[in-house]
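Here is one such tokenized protein:
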Amino acid sequence: MPNASTMITIERRRWRICRNLTSSQIAKACSSLLVPLMIGVFTIVTTMSQMNLAQQQREQDLQIAKENRDKDERIEESRRTAEVKAQEDQQMHTVLAAYLKDMTELMLYRNFTLTDKLMATVVRGKTLTTLGQLDGKRKDHLVRFLYEAQMISGGQPSIDLTGADLSGVDFTNYKLNGVSFVKCNLIKAIFDKTSLQGVDFQNAQLSMTSFAGSNLINVSFEEANLTNASFISAHLSNVEFYYAIVTNADFTDVRASNFTFALVNDNNTIFNEAHLEFAIFTFSTLINASFVETEFTMGNMNNAILDNANFTGASISLANFDESKLSGSIFDESFAMGASFYGSNLVATKWQGAIVDAVDFSQANLSSASITDDQIRRAVKTFDIILPDGSLGFDTNLLKNGDAEGENDTCGTNPWYVSFMIAQKYNRTRPQILGKCYFTGQSDAVQATMWQRVRVPNEYGEWVRTGAAIIRIVGGCVSPFALYVLSLTLTSLVE
């Protein structure tokens, strides 16, 4: 093995040889090395390409194999599901057939009667147990069988369905009279275009249930859960929702008379284009409710929480919103003539294009509201009003006792000078317009008159001079369903 000295000598010789080479000799040497170098590079590139293609082919084969396995598994799962469903269908068919057979035999039994408490208990237990084993379609068959056999139609004796599982039943285009669904589970049930008269849904679970296009008469939803329920285009007469939960419910295009929505807990519910006659929403919570283009004439919403409600284009004439919370609500383009907002919270409300003639804004808070001075001047009562700029307004009504409201919750004509005129309270046959009392002529009066002397305060001098102030007389004594307004400027009365 050469030592270090020998290696150094060899390297020096190589260096002298390379130093003595000519440029042509160097080029010739490089070219002789280039060919094997290129062959080596090509070989490496080809090998790597083949390896990548092989890897891709393996991945593709694995993917195809996985897809085939998944397809086989789906087919097998579908087959197993079909088998299970077929078994369940057969089992439910057997359960329903056995129930109908047993009930038919009982009803054909000569001495069968539900007045026997033991018999009634057995039948109720068998009915509830059977319902718990059926799907919605078969529950529908069972209930229709009992209804047509007059065993749940409200007469005594009848089978008590309280607490029954009736989820998913479909009574479309059916007729149910006098049936009690108290505390029943009716989630996702369908009552579309159904006639319901005297039906009781008290405390029932009615989430996602549909009553679209149905006709409901004398129906109770007291304390029922109607979350996401639909009443689109339904007709309701004497229907009550006391204490119900109706979050996200849809009452679009509903036609309702004597509609009671009092003490209801409601968020985001829709009443757009509904026609609500004598509807009552007192003490209800209706956050973000929508009443766009709704007819709410003579309705009652006193003491309700209606924050951020939308009454755009709604007709709310003669409606009562006394002491209600309406902050952030929209009344743009609404017709609110004769409505009462006594003591209401109307902070940041919107009134663009709204007709507010003869409205009562007494003690209402209109801070930051988008309402014009002209609209406020048209109100019949504005004493102790908080104006949009936050200042306290003064009462522009110079007449005293303009609505026959006497002292100590009585009706009186003082300080009017009257002839053949009386003051009396509204009753159920007459609508409440501006208060609890109203002026009317005596029954034997041919011509009745009333007047009082008015003093114009000094602070109204500019209004009198410019003719901006008006005298407005509002009355409904000729017809309880009409509102009469007479306006004239003070300059036409003052010399």
User: Anything to note?
Assistant: Helices lie at 4-20, 23-108, 117-131, 136-148, 373-377, 461-466. Confidence is low (pLDDT under 50) at residues 476-485. The CA atoms of residues 313 and 334 lie 4 Å apart.
